[in-house]
Automatic annotation (TrEMBL):
Residues 8-63 form the 4Fe-4S Mo/W bis-MGD-type domain. This is Formate dehydrogenase. The chain holds residues 223 to 923 of 926 of the full protein. It comes from the Bacteria. Keywords: 4Fe-4S, Iron, Iron-sulfur, Metal-binding, Oxidoreductase, Repeat. One of its GO terms (molecular function) is 4 iron, 4 sulfur cluster binding. GO terms for biological process: formate metabolic process; respiratory electron transport chain.
């Protein structure tokens, strides 16, 4: 940190990166952010990780989009790499009026044929108000529900399981509740790298004697703090978790009273678990039966216990089943709804919880109200003062790409998402984007997706705008602008409103607080939460009165399901969509690393973060590297049935032998060229966490 004399103003807002939602103070001089400090937010209590502290200067990067752009008629083919140095060969600068007219006219022309020809991807990097407006535009303006965002690529399967069995898609307790727990399971998550400030609470919990059970196919930093480290075989989660629950049943360690009072389907669950004895499951998951027994006893006899999970659980074709197991484990031990207990899927993006709550998903309107319910739709169209829209669930992220290939979808509006990097089997997605007749991209940089755009709309970065966000803890917080937007860039809500007007919608919002007020009309989760309150404090939903700071723990007296009961959903073993074989003998696991965020568009332009991790890399066990004749620092070729990338190899004992871990932030070795687009049937999430891969030493020229 610098000297207080260094800056001429400070602005309190929320970090733009992960779902922890740390509150941050930005010190600004001459409209430049000089440095950042953590402040006393409910989720971070003055702490920040390296991304929050040092990852802010991407907003001042010379690559920022500052003018609306329209594709030139004589432009080369779509998909060629548009860069800051050559963009004028592809695009010409335009006024806002010209660009908005071009964007709206292209979409309206397709709508004249059929509203279903247009789909939209909104963003978990935008505010709640912007997410709400985006889904409203697709539903009101095009008459259907083909609207989705990156939740489909992270926790859609967790939400599917939670909605099915608990009746709510959000966490039942904040992560800070771990301070009241005796035992915690962290499975398929790597908080030290991905939720670093949450990880500090986990470490404190172990320091005061809490038992942390870490379950992950990859070793990780939390191992040092764990009472148990279960490095199970990738893809064997359901077998392992069912074996643990089998022990709890066999040894009568479950909470009969809780089960009788608050759950249903227990008899079927008990019967199902008989098929998963630990001695048999040991052969599948690789964890000794005695360890499974010990973990079962530790969890089931805890006074209070929590379960945390991440994308290692959700990004499988059996992601929903993985979450069903975790929910069942908590329910059978009565570990929901009390201090120090609960279910907590650690949300990824800073506003993926809020964007999902705001209805940026194809099956639900705001507050997870079903689009198939006539009463729900009419409640919204009453507020919107417009006619009905489709009662059919819309298509999801990967399904939309398939529908473009099939010719059903011909135009897209993509705000702050980068499917040309983030979708599985990304060459398939890029081919789809190239086929679109009209693509409007709204972003802060020329992303890989912008290579395919017809119109590019330059938007404000998070630190340049006003709006609310909701973190993984259900805490709603206010984001405030610290610096002006560069050039002609505008806040996303303003662009959405101007585009909607040109699509014939009667939108007259002049400030995000008017959008927030409209959201409250049909979102009970925002009861007792007002814009004015959020100007002064964060509020956790549900908030029971205008003075209540919100409820960190929910469902102590029953669940929002029929008769107030949660449900046990027995999960059977579904194998990964493809297995290693002679041609592709290794397992590829993709994920994040501490310094880089998702597709890298922000952090690779943040000078400190990029200096620490400047080059695409992947990690393998040193023995595996030796067998391949590869030294750390050599380049290797990774090939799957979808494609090949070349990347620098690192040695890492945390990675299991015959496994490869590849971060997905690097365009020059785009992990999603390799990944499989096979989907979980319930959450429709792709299997990013398991692909069969071949590894060879690369012959560099
Ligand atoms: Fe930002 Fe997440 Fe780091 Fe907090 S933990 S500073 S929210 S990236």
């Amino acid at each position: 940190a610098g000297d207080s004399k260094d800056y001429d103003r400070e602005v309190e807002t929320v970090c733009p990166y992960c779902g922890v939602g740390c509150q941050i103070s930005l010190k600004v001089k001459d409209d430049k952010i000089l440095y950042a400090e953590g402040i006393d937010g409910p989720a971070n209590e003055n702490r920040l990780c390296v991304k929050g502290r040092f990852g802010f200067d991407y907003i001042h990067h010379p690559h920022r989009l500052t003018k609306p752009l329209i594709r030139r008629e004589d432009a080369p083919a779509k998909g060629l790499n548009v860069e800051p140095g050559n963009w004028h060969e592809f695009f010409r600068e335009a006024t806002w009026d010209e660009a908005l007219d071009a964007a709206a006219n292209g979409l309206a022309k397709l709508r004249d044929d059929d509203g279903r020809r247009v789909a939209g991807f909104g963003s978990a990097k935008c505010s709640n108000e912007e997410a709400y407006l985006f889904q409203k535009m697709i539903r009101q303006g095009f008459g259907h529900n083909n609207v989705d965002h990156c939740t489909r690529l992270c926790h859609a399967s967790s939400v599917a399981a939670l909605m099915e069995n608990v009746g709510s898609g959000a966490v039942t307790a904040t992560f800070n509740e771990i301070e009241n727990a005796d035992v915690a399971i962290a499975i398929g998550c790597n908080p030290i790298e991905n939720h670093p400030v949450a990880a500090t609470y986990f470490k404190q919990f172990t320091k005061r004697g809490g038992k942390l059970i870490v379950m992950d196919p990859r070793g990780q930093g939390m191992k040092r703090f764990a009472s148990h480290m279960l490095q199970f075989r990738a893809g064997s989660d359901v077998s392992m978790l069912n074996a643990i629950m089998n022990v709890i049943v066999e040894e009568n360690l479950y909470d009969q009273q809780y089960i009788e009072a608050f759950t249903e389907n227990w008899t079927a669950m008990k019967e199902h678990l008989k098929g998963f004895p630990p001695e048999e499951m040991e052969k599948i998951c690789g964890i000794p039966a005695e360890t499974l027994r010990d973990v079962a006893r530790t969890f089931a006899t805890a006074k209070s216990a929590m379960i945390f999970w991440g994308m290692g659980v959700s990004q499988h074709i059996h992601g929903t089943d993985n979450s069903r197991c975790l929910i069942a484990l908590a329910l059978m031990c009565g570990q929901v709804g009390r201090p120090g207990s609960g279910l907590h899927p650690l949300r990824g993006q800073n506003n993926v919880q809020g964007a999902s709550d705001a209805g940026l998903i194809p099956m639900f309107l705001p507050d997870y109200q079903s689009v198939t319910d006539d009463g729900v739709r009419s409640a919204f169209t009453d507020v919107w003062k417009s006619g009905d829209f489709s009662n059919e669930k819309g298509l999801t992220v990967v399904e939309i790409m398939d529908a473009i290939h099939d010719g059903q979808i011909k135009g897209m509006y993509i705000l702050g998402e980068n499917p040309a990097m983030s979708d599985p089997d990304v060459d398939h997605a890029r081919d789809a984007l190239a086929k679109l007749e009209h693509l409007v991209v709204q972003d802060i940089f020329l992303t890989e997706t912008a290579n395919y755009a017809d119109v590019i709309l330059p938007s404000s970065a998070w630190y340049e705008k006003t709006g609310t966000v909701t973190n993984t803890n259900r805490q709603v917080q206010m984001g405030r602008p610290a610096v002006p937007s560069p050039g002609d860039a505008k806040e996303d809500w303003w662009i959405e409103v101007e585009l909607a007007k040109r699509l014939g919608l009667d939108w007259n919002y002049t400030h995000p607080k008017e959008v927030f007020a409209e959201m409250k009309l049909n979102m009970k989760s925002f009861d007792n939460i007002t814009w004015d309150r959020l100007e002064t404090t964060a509020v956790t939903y549900p908030s029971l009165s205008p003075e209540d700071p919100g409820q960190p723990i929910v469902f102590g007296d029953g669940f929002p399901r029929s008769e107030g009961r949660a449900r046990f959903a027995p999960a059977s073993v579904i194998p990964p969509a493809e297995f290693p074989d002679e041609e592709y003998p290794f397992i590829l696991i993709t994920g994040r690393q501490l310094e880089h965020w998702h597709t890298g568009s922000m952090t690779r332009r943040a000078s400190v973060l990029d200096a620490v991790e400047p080059e695409a890399n992947c990690s393998l066990h040193p023995r595996t590297l030796r067998e391949l004749g590869v030294a750390p620092g050599d380049y290797i070729k990774l090939s799957t049935r979808r494609g090949t990338v070349t990347v620098m190899a690192r040695a890492d004992r945390a990675v299991a032998e015959k496994n490869v871990f590849l971060p997905f932030a690097y365009v020059e070795a785009a992990a999603n060229i390799l990944t499989n687009s096979a989907l979980d049937p319930y959450g429709k999430i792709p299997e990013f966490k398991f692909s069969a891969v071949r590894v060879e030493k690369a012959e560099l020229l």
